[in-house]
Amino acid sequence: MRILASLAVAVLTLASLAGHSQEPAAPPLAPKAQLAAPQVPPMGWNSWNYFAGRVDDKGIRAAADQLVSTGMKDAGYVYVNIDDTWQGERDASGVLHANAKFPDMKALADYVHSKGLKIGIYSSPGSKTCGGYAGSLGHEEQDAQMYADWGIDYLKYDLCSFREDVMAKEAPNDKAARMRLMIAAYDKMGKALKATGRPIVYSLCQYGWDAVWEWAPALGGNLWRTTGDITPNWDRIYSIVSQQAGLESYAGPGHWNDPDMLEVGNGKLTLAENRTHFSMWAMLAAPLLAGNDLPNMKPEVKSILTNRDVIAIDQDALGKQGSRTYSDGEVEVWTRPLSGEAMAVAIVAVGDSRYATHPFHLSLAKLGLHGPQSGKDLWTGKPITLTDNQPIEIESHDVLLVRIDAPK
Ligand code: GLA
């Protein structure tokens, strides 16, 4: 966007130098390409990670009810997002109808809104979604308008069959051309959403291809997946975390790297793994889209997802994503600058075999800090002092997450 803006300025300047300044004023530069511009990472719930193809109208209403009754809404979770498998057939005029699982989308959106929540939906630039349901290819404007008419607040747009339908077909031997086709498809839907005039958060899902973080904000992307799919196991979650190191400069208010939706409470993740997963998404300024079975959520899972101190790290107004500051053996130390000159530090035991005879020693100097630091341990809720060379023992896959309000 900035490049486009400077090009436009350069063109205008050249035009006036060439004596064309008497021509009618050029149209104003396009407003910053943000569709809804949530200034903090979006928070909510998405149906895919737990329910996948079993999502239906009843389940979405139940999720909305649960967000309210569990206190998650009060903690900031507002989007209720329907993922894949809601689509039925297109009629003769190209209008896509929901399938039998969703008898009345407008009524469902009204219901979700009546709870003070927002509603999201899912499509693909291809003819088919990843689950094989109807995508938006050739119907982008029509679909965007229909979402707006239903009252949709959020769209996840998932590459899926666009790869075979268009990229492979039109440019089988030219990777750069395939990437340009992909970018154009995301641009097309970005424009279609914008043309509806309704603020709709635009979530790009194309697994991080072609350095999406470099081009997504300019075409209205509010968040973009940086990797392939998450699964509820430590190795996958840790691999995703590792792939975020180096992307921090691309995130900022209104446009976020998306390491995928949360698996907190899913699969066989231990409590330590759930805590670390949630802590790291907060350190990464990641969208917090819970993906668990809300009606059957265990109290310990709820207390992780609603930890206000950790959520405050994620939602910090400065909007700076954290970085991996250093690692030492199996322990990684991540830091995140926060508003008011505060700082968050996450010390993570990423390996499988931590043992107490060889504690990790924290180096404050490597964090740019000098002398004892008073902070709050965000998982015990208690004050903590970090000192240089302090031995710290953290169980395998667990985390020590500390907020330091006045780092020295
Ligand atoms: C892809 C996405 C997932 C989910 C499924 C649905 O795999 O990455 O998040 O939306 O499609 O089919």
Q: Name the helicity range.
A: 25-40%
Span of the ends, CA to CA? 37 Å
Q: Give the class from helix and strand content and strand pairing.
A: alpha/beta
- Count of DSSP E strands? 18
Ligands (ions, cofactors included): alpha-D-galactopyranose
Largest sheet: 8 strands, parallel
Integer average pLDDT: 91
Instruction: List low-confidence stretches.
Output: 1-36
Radius of gyration: 23 Å
What does this protein look like?
By secondary structure, the protein is of the alpha/beta class. It has 13 helices and 18 strands. An eight-stranded parallel beta sheet has the order 9-8-7-6-5-2-1-10. It has a six-stranded antiparallel beta sheet with strand order 11-12-13-18-15-16, with helices on one face. The protein has a two-stranded antiparallel ribbon with strand order 3-4. Helix 3 packs parallel to helix 5 (105-114), helix 6 runs parallel beside helix 8 (175-196) and helix 10 (234-244) packs parallel to helix 11. It starts with a helix and ends with a strand. It binds alpha-D-galactopyranose (GLA). Alpha-D-galactopyranose is lined by residues 48, 83-84, 129-131, 158, 205, 229.
Architecture blueprint of SSEs:
Layout: H1 2-17, E1 43-46, H2 48-51, H3 57-69, H4 72-75, E2 79-81, E3 87-90, E4 96-98, H5 105-114, E5 118-123, H6 140-150, E6 154-158, H7 162-170, H8 175-196, E7 201-205, H9 212-215, E8 223-225, H10 234-244, E9 256-258, H11 271-283, E10 288-290, H12 299-305, H13 308-314, E11 323-328, E12 331-337, E13 343-349, E14 360-361, E15 373-377, E16 383-386, E17 391-392, E18 399-404
Parallel strand pairs: 1-2, 1-10, 2-5, 5-6, 6-7, 7-8, 8-9
Antiparallel strand pairs: 3-4, 11-12, 12-13, 13-18, 14-17, 15-16, 15-18
Helix pairs in contact: 3-5, 6-8, 7-8, 10-11, 11-12, 11-13
Alpha-D-galactopyranose binds at residues 48, 83-84, 129-131, 158, 205, 229.
